[in-house]
Amino acid sequence: MKYIEKTEKLIKNYGVHKNSTVKTTAELDERILKDAFVVFQKSKQTISAELRPTLWRLIMKSRISKLATAALVIIGLSIVFTGLFTNGAKPAYAIEQTLEAIRQIKTVYMAGEFYKQGEFECWMQYDSNPDKPAYIWLGNLQIDSPLCKICSPDGVFLLNRHTRRVFYASRDERDKNWYVNFGKFFEDIVKKAVQTDSIEIHPETTDMNKEVIVVTITSEKRQQQFRVDPETKLPLSFTTLRENDYMEMARNTLAVKNLFEIRYNEEPPAGLFDMPEDAVVVEEEIDCIVHPGMGMPADDMTAEEACLQLVKKVIQATNQFDYKTVQNLRFPAPIPPDEILEAMKAQLGNQPLIELIKHGNPYQHGDMWYLPVTLLEGGRKTKKEDIPIKFYEFDGKSYCIIAYED
Amino acid sequence: MSYQGRSNVSKLTRKACMLEDKILVWKLRRGSMNALGCIYEKYKHDMLALAVSLASDHSVAEDVVHDVFISFAQYAPRLQLRGRLRSYLLSSVANRCRDMARKNSRRQTRALDETLTVTTRSGEPDQLAMATEQVQHIGRALEQLPDPQKEVIILHLQGELNFREIARAQGLPLSTVQSRYRYGLTKLRSLLDGEVET
């Protein structure tokens, strides 16, 4: 063993010794937790007022919402796990039990994380058909977004909870695959896992001292895990441990990465699936999506000037990986997963992600404006396009936003 | 398919721990006091051990952990965690220790015997895998290192943070962190001449 390694080993042992011998006292624990709870409580009370809506608008673009949904669970495969609780106090577990349990639920609440759009929450209410929810509510948790989408037998509508604007369509989207389907997604994963003999099941005691059954599914591309309540057999959470094919996830409109919390058979908040009585129905989706602060103020300039300035701002923010700004100025604005971002940054070095090589004169066509540009992507690839820009009025002020069509 | 035993489970431990943390952080951001308590319980000893190694004495170390966790609780509702929660907390401890050391510009000298007493007061005899003399010797050697080198070595070897995490926490280039580590180990080599056989 080299000298340096011996030194490292010695210091490591010293560290292990320290870690095993230094413990907090009950007095210290009490002092810290008491103070922490106080500041946490205060912080919680002030935070919501400061947060601003951003993110995710992509979800609402239903026409492109083909979704990689997700969720749990399960399928009728005979994957029986026995001997999990050898003391006999707990029953043996089979994945098919979870499938059966899921088919019995009346409502489900999920809170999780999409690969691109960030955190979300979703309510579903079932009547008689476990494969097709009667009502769906999908909202975004990320920074208190005001947008939510509701599907019901009467149609689908997008609601902006801040502006009380609604964009409505009479189509039935409940049997579309955009929502978090409790059967299909997970069924496919498990089927593949069974074929390759890559399911592993083990018990675990969580930090909260709760016993759960952990099911780990491994494939070449990814490794996923879900936790099951030993009593109800229902899934409690779903997590992606490893993802090797981020591009596949990036291609999907909505790809679920994690489900932090899943609750069952709770009564949804009153009126959750109804169109609010005070809502104003708008004809264009963009008028529902926009809200105060979104887009670039355009009162003090001509439309031509605004178009150019807006595009330059978005390019600058993109090069700075400032997605908060990008999402405020462009719709939709999916965020690449962290892993892809890191790879992009490493590959680019000091090279800007995108450069505006030249531009033409903005022109108007129908309700939209367009700015013809030539862009250089990653210092290599040139691309010509006419960037679509939407102007809108809100509270007497004029704003503009890049608004791509599907 | 039957249970395949625990052999593969250990491989998942770290990732599972990260995911557990992610869930805890998510709940924390949703206002869960329980999650805050769980995070403290999970990492309190690691934070204190690191603080004891970096700070001048045990009471200072306790204050460091207190300040770090209060600050964590304060910003928790808007916390955007990009790395490991453990790394975040330990980095915060290191940063706080550094700040306190700067404030107390004149470094307090610590009686090593006292240090050993306080740091092991909760330990059981059978936990003391290292001989007391050896612990003293290593502790003394670490104390003689320049603070930046000592900090990197302790964060890496005791705190188990990788160099990238340390660099991010300290706002330094990765190469600087690696250099400090290398120079620190080289100096330790001479200081621990009797401990490490060539």
Structure report:
The complex is a heterodimer of chains A (406) and B (198). Chain A folds into two domains: 208 residues, outer membrane lipoprotein receptor (LolB), chain A (Clam); 109 residues, Nuclear Transport Factor 2, Chain: A, CATH 3.10.450. Chain A is built from nine helices and 21 strands. In chain A, helix 7 packs antiparallel against helix 8. About 11% of the residues of chain A have low confidence. Chain B has 198 residues and is mainly alpha-helical. Chain B has one domain. The radius of gyration of chain B is 18 Å and the shape is globular. Chain B starts with 8 loop residues before the first helix and ends in a 7-residue tail after the last helix.
Could you give the topology of this structure?
The complex is a heterodimer of chains A (406) and B (198).
Chain A: H1 3-21, H2 26-50, E1 80-81, E2 93-94, H3 95-103, E3 107-114, E4 118-125, E5 135-140, E6 147-152, E7 155-160, E8 165-169, H4 184-195, E9 199-205, E10 211-218, E11 222-228, E12 235-243, H5 246-251, E13 256-264, E14 280-282, H6 285-289, E15 296-297, H7 303-319, H8 323-329, E16 330-331, H9 338-348, E17 354-359, E18 363-365, E19 368-377, E20 381-394, E21 397-403
Parallel strand pairs in A: 8-14, 16-21
Antiparallel strand pairs in A: 1-2, 3-4, 3-13, 4-5, 5-6, 6-7, 7-8, 9-10, 10-11, 11-12, 15-21, 17-19, 18-19, 19-20, 20-21
Helix pairs in contact in A: 7-8
Chain B: H1 9-29, H2 33-54, H3 58-75, H4 85-103, H5 112-119, H6 132-143, H7 147-158, H8 163-170, H9 174-191
Helix pairs in contact in B: 1-2, 2-3, 2-4, 3-4, 4-8, 7-9, 8-9
What are its keywords?
heterodimer; A: alpha+beta; outer membrane lipoprotein receptor (LolB), chain A; Nuclear Transport Factor 2, Chain: A; 2 domains; 9 helices; 32% strand; globular; B: 198 residues; mainly alpha
CATH T-level topology of the largest domain in chain A: outer membrane lipoprotein receptor (LolB), chain A
Largest sheet of chain B: none
What's the end-to-end separation of chain B, in Å? 51 Å
- Report the uncertain regions of chain A: 48-91
